[in-house]
Amino acid sequence: MNLFSIRTKLAGGLAQLAGRIGGGSARQRSAADAAEYALALENVADAVAIADDEGTIRFSNAAFDRAFASRRGERGGSNLLDVTETHENAALFPTPSGLIAIIRDTSEARRLEAQLRQAQKMEAVGRLAGGVAHDFNNLLTIINGYAELALIATDASSPAFAPLREIRKAGEQAAELTQRLLAVGRSQLLQPRVVEINTLVSDLIDMVRPLLGDSIQFVCSLDSDAGCVRLDPGQFRQALLNLVVNARDAMPHGGVLLIETARVSAGCAAEADRDAPAGECVVISVTDDGIGMDEETKAHLFEPFFTTKEPGTGTGLGLSTTFGIVKQSGGHIQVDSAVGDGASFRLYFPRCEREEPAAAEPRIEESAFPGEEMRGDETILVVAGDARVRGLVLSSLKLVGYSALEAQGHAEAESICAQHDGAIHLLLVDGTIPGIAGHELARSVRRIRPGIRVLYTSSYPEDAIPRRIGMDADYITKPFSPHCLAQKVREVLDQTSRHFILVVDDEAPVRDLLADMLDRAGYDVLSASNGEEALKLVQELAPALVVMDLVMPGKEGLETIAEIRRTAPMTKIIAISGAFSGRFLDVAAHLGANATLAKPLTADVLLSAVQDVLANETGR
Length: 620
Prior knowledge:
Elements: H1 3-22, H2 31-43, E1 47-51, E2 57-60, H3 62-68, H4 80-85, E3 90-95, E4 98-103, H5 107-153, H6 161-184, E5 193-196, H7 197-212, E6 216-222, E7 228-231, H8 233-249, E8 255-264, H9 266-272, E9 281-288, H10 295-299, H11 318-328, E10 332-337, E11 343-352, E12 379-383, H12 387-399, E13 403-407, H13 410-419, E14 426-430, H14 438-448, E15 453-458, H15 461-464, E16 475-477, H16 482-493, E17 501-504, H17 508-520, E18 525-528, H18 531-541, E19 545-549, H19 557-567, E20 572-577, H20 583-591, E21 595-598, H21 603-615
Parallel strand pairs: 6-8, 12-13, 12-14, 14-15, 15-16, 17-18, 17-19, 19-20, 20-21
Antiparallel strand pairs: 1-2, 1-4, 3-4, 5-7, 7-11, 8-9, 9-11, 10-11
Helix pairs in contact: 5-6, 5-12, 6-11, 7-8, 8-11, 12-16, 13-14, 18-19, 19-20
């Protein structure tokens, strides 16, 4: 039903009410009925008013009063005809005693439509920026990589050495630019952790002061109860510094820069900005009393490459980078500004509880390349669709002593894994190889080469490493140098043995389904089709957990469980079966299975059992 038909039907009832309001002696219904009409009118969302033939308003509901700021009983010269003439969504109906107007306020709908269009535009521009950065990172990997290899091979006294060094320096600056583009497209892989926001802001103060100069007064007001947020500290610093620089440039003749933190309740955050994250928030404000912005500037403020600065004085990426970082971190950014009245940027992030400090990760120190600590003699399979990237990686690895095999795609990689006589210690796979995702290739290769280590490379980390696996996977982002590549390869190869889950089932569809359930949950998965294969893998790779079907040809599950308990007593076991009404499961538990599950089983049931069994450190 359209708005006009709704108004037409409503107008009939209003006309009756108008008659009653216009002439009390003519009322034929009780006062209670009239009160019901009035109550209904008072609470409808549309603005409704009743006037006499001249347009003088005799009645208006709350929606009308809010929209047109009229005061009940004090309308004075308010004329309904004037109101309806200036409003595009007004319908006017005659009654026996005057006029009725029904007006729908569409400003909120228009605001939401404009917000949606802006969000879609930012998403499209962000994807474009991220795509450009992705392609450019491939080129920078080649440029910067070969520049470093050329520097290694060139004597410092050679006339070519200084130009090569400048090429590498420019390439590194270009790499920083692509990282900002990835931030615009929200395509960078963040490393979030729980941090106290006041500590993070305080640490930035010494960096902020030199940026401002003597003409700008810097004030910092931190709410002691602000609390903690979960974000990437390095990216947050970049976002905040971008806002500081923007504020400084808006005060060419000096002024005051204020940075504040505050804890806001869920209701206050939603009231201040309906797009703020749900629940309790921490808000960080950066406010200046500079030149301010008009509405046109604010409409384009976060678009990449938009700038109001003179040509050559800015890239137009500062605020768009900040926008991308905040959004990717689950936050929201709001700006208030007017010409000549300064600007205030507010960053909203969900508030969270403090976590126990994690142990510091070992840091690989920079050293001369190629250093002895980076060298190795293992065999590495390099899979990359771009022959130039593949060639750079092969040259870099061979320079530090590794044996390197190469494949352009997944079929060639699987063939090499199946046919190569010696060991293959590491699969180095690009996340954008044609035809298959990097993590899917890794799972396929592990079926052929159980226990092989995997290192992903990509401009878009999520291409190679799904967000469900995230930081648990080993990865190196493009553009990378031969130095960084050698360090990372050595780090991955030197890791202590990783724990796997071994899935054993003679039916390939069931085996693949179970492996996929576990893989999607982020576990490293091996598979075997019978008891003999399972026992061999248990002895060679010591999986943390075996998920074992009980009814299989050859060595059955019950026999295999008994042997695992005898030869590898620390290995956890989950027995699964749908045969003989589950009677075999009782026997499996008696033989040493940590848990039993009846087929068919869902992913939730399997994963819950896996988590429970792995969490039980005491075993049986």
